[in-house]
């Protein structure tokens, strides 16, 4: 932990180092997902639980949007909500994620009901929404910087799943294609904002802590999946329970 003020470029280097160490592409569950070592039921569990994260992202962004002080900032952040919620029914990232769960054979009403969520998933996602609503605008924006690292994990995930799972198709994974351009656009803005506004040691430490927190949210979601559906394989009462065979 540095006790001196970093230059903006040094701050960016420090933030990228956090991602290199803590981003969830390193998690054993993600490695298994990418490498084709999960069963269809385990992939279903991942998609069902990840749906809650996808569905709550627009609410998270709306919480921040309401706090932004200028029209310029609000216009920028509003695009994120449109990306996920779409501009009409059946469009946007949340709708595309439901096509993923459809393609995996999950009942859409069941997915949207959230009845099968792991408690760890709900806790982690809700903690992220609360963080964005309660912390400073600078910290809230900094927490989105995991998008700096998402294009690599998306490319890896799509290629690995298409290669290794016969039940996965390009249409099933249609959610990810727009994110290859949306995520860099969003992270470029957030990184510029953070570098411009984190001009004290305390603020720089706060943005780095915010990114560590967000990495922890994503990591803990995979921890919950790994514990429930891989080892030891104890599914909490009420959570999605794959059929035998």
TrEMBL record:
A single BP term in Gene Ontology: pyrroloquinoline quinone biosynthetic process
Reaction(s) this enzyme catalyzes, per UniProt: 6-(2-amino-2-carboxyethyl)-7,8-dioxo-1,2,3,4,7,8-hexahydroquinoline-2,4-dicarboxylate + 3 O2 = pyrroloquinoline quinone + 2 H2O2 + 2 H2O + H(+)
Keyword Secreted: no
InterPro entries referenced in this protein's UniProt entry, alphabetically: Haem_Oase-like_multi-hlx, PqqC, PqqC-like, Thiaminase-2/PQQC
EC number: 1.3.3.11
Domain Thiaminase-2/PQQC: start-end pairs: 14-223
Keywords: Oxidoreductase, PQQ biosynthesis
GO MF term (any one): pyrroloquinoline-quinone synthase activity
Pathway annotation from the record: Cofactor biosynthesis; pyrroloquinoline quinone biosynthesis
Tagged with keyword Oxidoreductase: yes
Role description: Ring cyclization and eight-electron oxidation of 3a-(2-amino-2-carboxyethyl)-4,5-dioxo-4,5,6,7,8,9-hexahydroquinoline-7,9-dicarboxylic-acid to PQQ.
Family: Belongs to the PqqC family.
Protein name: Pyrroloquinoline-quinone synthase
Organism: Acetobacter nitrogenifigens DSM 23921 = NBRC 105050
């Amino acid at each position: 932990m540095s006790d001196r003020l970093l230059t903006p470029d040094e701050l960016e280097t420090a933030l990228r180092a956090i991602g290199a160490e803590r981003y969830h592409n390193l998690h054993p569950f993600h490695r298994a997902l990418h490498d084709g070592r999960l069963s269809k039921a385990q992939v279903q569990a991942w998609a069902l639980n990840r749906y809650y994260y996808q569905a709550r992202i627009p609410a998270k962004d709306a919480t921040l949007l309401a706090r932004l002080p200028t029209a310029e900032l609000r216009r920028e952040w509003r695009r994120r909500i449109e990306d996920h919620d779409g501009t009409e029914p059946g469009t946007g990232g949340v709708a595309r994620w439901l096509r993923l769960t459809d393609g995996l054979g999950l009942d859409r009403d069941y997915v949207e009901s959230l009845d099968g969520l792991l408690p760890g998933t709900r806790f982690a996602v809700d903690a992220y929404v609360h963080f964005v609503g309660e912390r400073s605008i600078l910290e809230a924006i900094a927490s989105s910087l995991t998008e700096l690292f998402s294009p690599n994990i998306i490319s890896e995930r799509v290629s690995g799943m298409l290669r290794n799972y016969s039940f996965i198709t390009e249409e099933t994974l249609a959610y990810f294609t727009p994110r290859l351009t949306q995520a860099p656009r969003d992270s470029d803005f957030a990184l510029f904002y953070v570098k411009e506004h984190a001009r004290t040691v305390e603020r720089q430490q706060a943005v780095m802590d915010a990114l560590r927190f967000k990495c922890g949210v994503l990591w803990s979601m995979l921890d919950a999946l790994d514990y429930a559906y891989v080892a030891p394989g104890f599914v909490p009462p009420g959570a999605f329970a794959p059929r035998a065979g």
